[in-house]
Specification:
heterodimer; A: about 375 residues; 6-stranded mixed sheet; 9 helices; about 25% helix; B: about 280 residues; 2 domains
Chain lengths: ~375, ~280
């Protein structure tokens, strides 16, 4: 296994479109790094550049200590799991998994050992002589993983490997991949647009938008301290609530309500000259409380809002309402008696209010 | 009641049934005529319609024996087989490689796009226009023999086969090639280990179309190999046509004999051909 270094990587197509702009990232050995972002953000293109399937327009890519910009993918010692698995339909599961080793002219007994070991790990022993068309979606996905495992490569690349599976199988395979990472101690780069996958699997997450890296951080940091509005909105479901608010030097005022924030945050806003200016206040749905219910945290002043949508999710309830010209959501306990059309009193956890600059959309305080 | 009438209408869809029967007739009638004429004696060939359509007086294989003698059957069969087999193998190897190169590059390279249209446009050039220059050129190059005929066939079938292969390759996901590259395969290895086996249905289609064309072709060997003393089956069958008339009984017996190898080949490759046609047509 090895680490990777991506320095000032650009991808520019002949028509002038820039898919990836100045991508910089150091990936340590055995890290599980997730590239996440909406469609067209350049995450798959970056992965394909690492795989050698796309040329790098400029910048330096190192795998271990070796610069691999001009090295063909077959010589990069990487393995890739494709979104549609890309299993060779005319070969059996065994041959699919053994293909890379056969090309390396590995002795047959070693191939056999490696394939059977991978099949054992992935519980594919009984289907080794079947063709991909005779397998279920989950089995195909595991064969694609197995094909990567047998090679024992320096880096595993996974391009949305779970997106073709149904919801239940996806959760199951997600756990399998996490276990596999622990077991193999492999360096994995994983592309997804599913933030749940990103949050549960990654040791570090790279959030991308329009070819630009927005933030690189651990899942916890990304969730609790997003660098900008895009990251704050992208990570978390339902997404963070954003309201325009005016900072009057002490409180944030929105929709006629004054929201108190901790003194140290007030100081930062004052120091940075936001007094009298409009900022964007961000609050996650789980930090919006029923003002009348008991709460362990310090709440802001309450405000009333009419519930427009009520969603029972089993263990909790999601309420949607409009406030200060924005559509907002709150996650409340299952015991909530609210229903559509009711006017309810809400309040925010003062410690969990994020403030963003309205112009630059960068975070000011978390 | 309503259901019954629907079923009844579906059972007796007269227009379609009549069309199918007509189609069946147009296929079976010439075949029937070929078979019975092949077994008849020249004396049974009268102008009377009834006797022409009737079975032969005796089912003798004499015509077949005589046809085989006149056409030097085994030698002609061998020549036809050799030309057809070599053309077929060359077509599958060369045209599939070309189709692969063109299909995978024509979206990004003007050269390949031009090559594709240039090659495919060859389909619209009639053989009659090319015939005389080709006769002269093959003679000058001293390839007015079986080798020359094979070379010409490989070129003649290139447009259609490249068109078929290029179309079929669009259905083979590029991710398979990318997976093979990542697995450590060069483009050459990827082609032979992954792409070539996946094109089996199209290979079968190309094989049958090419083989049928070359097996039945009279014109090319006639103009290129005339005077060389080497006959293919269709060339040998020209012996039955003389300036005084045609011996239909021997000719038809010979046609039946020539038909058999192709029929067997078609039956063997039939499943793959249908797959090839469907895969090529439906994305």
């Amino acid at each position: 296994m090895a680490g990777l270094s991506l320095q000032h990587i650009w991808k520019k197509y002949p028509n002038g479109y820039e898919a990836v702009k100045d991508f910089n990232l150091e990936i340590d050995d055995k890290e599980f790094v997730i590239f996440v972002g909406p469609s067209g953000c350049g995450k798959s293109t970056t992965l394909r550049m690492i795989a050698g399937l796309e040329d790098i327009s400029s910048g330096t890519l190192k795998i271990g200590d070796r610069v691999v910009n001009d090295v063909e993918s077959k010589d990069r010692d990487i393995a890739m799991v494709f979104q549609n698995y890309a299993l060779y339909p005319h070969m059996t599961v065994y041959d699919n998994m053994a293909f890379a080793l056969m090309l390396k002219k590995t002795p047959k007994d070693e191939i056999d050992k490696a394939v059977k070991e991978a099949a054992r790990i992935l519980e594919l022993e009984k289907v080794l002589d079947r063709r991909p068309s005779q397998l279920s979606g989950g089995q195909r996905q595991r064969v694609a993983m197995g094909r990567a495992i047998v090679r024992n490569p320096q880096v595993f690349l996974m391009d949305e490997p779970l997106s073709n599976l149904d919801a239940k199988l996806r959760v199951q395979m997600r756990a399998e991949i996490a276990k596999l990472h622990d077991r193999l101690g492999a360096t994995i780069i994983y592309v997804t647009h599913d933030q749940t996958e990103a949050m549960t699997l990654g040791t570090r997450i790279v959030v991308m938008k329009d070819g630009i890296v927005q933030q690189v951080a651990s899942p916890t940091v990304l969730y609790n301290k997003p660098d900008n509005i895009f990251v704050a909105g992208f990570i978390g479901s339902p997404q963070m609530n954003f309201i325009n608010a005016r900072f009057d030097g002490n409180d944030l005022i929105a929709g006629g309500t004054s929201f108190e924030i901790p003194t140290e945050k007030v100081d930062v806003l004052r120091e940075k000259g936001y007094t009298g200016k409009t900022v964007i206040m961000g609050v996650r749905p789980e930090n919006v409380y029923d003002a009348k219910a008991e709460s362990l945290c310090k709440l802001t002043a309450p405000f009333d809002a009419k519930i427009t949508v009520f969603e029972l999710l089993g263990s909790e309830v999601q309420l949607y309402f409009d406030f200060a010209g924005a559509s907002m959501s709150a996650k409340v306990g299952q015991s909530s008696r609210a229903s559509v059309g009711d006017v309810m009193s809400f309040a925010f956890d003062t410690d969990k209010i994020h403030v963003f600059d309205k112009e630059t959309e960068q975070a000011i305080i978390h | 009641m309503a259901n019954e009438s629907i079923i009844a209408r579906e059972k007796f869809n007269w227009p379609v049934t009549i069309l199918l029967l007509l189609g069946l007739f147009t296929v079976l009638f010439p075949l029937y005529m070929t078979v019975i004429i092949a077994f008849k004696q020249p004396s049974e060939m009268t102008n009377d319609v009834i006797s022409l359509l009737s079975f032969p007086e005796s089912w003798s294989l004499e015509n077949f024996r005589e046809a085989m003698r006149v056409t030097d059957f085994w030698r002609s069969l061998f020549n036809s087989f050799l030309i057809t087999a070599v053309t077929m193998v060359c077509a599958i190897v060369i045209h599939s490689l070309m189709g692969y190169a063109v299909a995978r590059n024509m979206n990004t390279s003007k050269f390949y796009r031009f090559s594709y249209f240039y090659v495919v446009s060859g389909m619209f050039v009639p053989f009659a226009i090319l015939m005389m220059p080709l006769v002269k050129q093959t003679a000058q190059l001293h390839i007015d023999n079986m080798f020359g005929v094979i070379v010409l066939y490989v070129v003649f079938y290139m447009p259609m086969n490249v068109l078929l292969y290029a179309g079929y390759l669009k259905n083979i996901p590029i991710a398979l090639e990318e997976a093979a590259h990542v697995d450590g395969a060069s483009t050459w290895v990827t082609y032979w280990k992954i792409i070539f086996p996946l094109m089996w249905p199209m290979h079968a289609t190309v094989a049958v179309l090419t083989a049928l064309g070359t097996w039945n072709d009279v014109m090319t060997p006639l103009v290129i190999m005339s005077g060389s003393g080497v006959n293919t089956l269709p060339l040998a069958q020209l012996n039955f046509q003389t300036q005084f008339g045609t011996n239909y009984n021997l000719a038809f017996a010979s046609y039946l004999l020539a038909l058999l190898p192709m029929l067997i080949f078609y039956l063997v490759a039939q499943k793959q051909i249908i797959n090839g046609v469907i895969n090529g047509a439906v994305k």
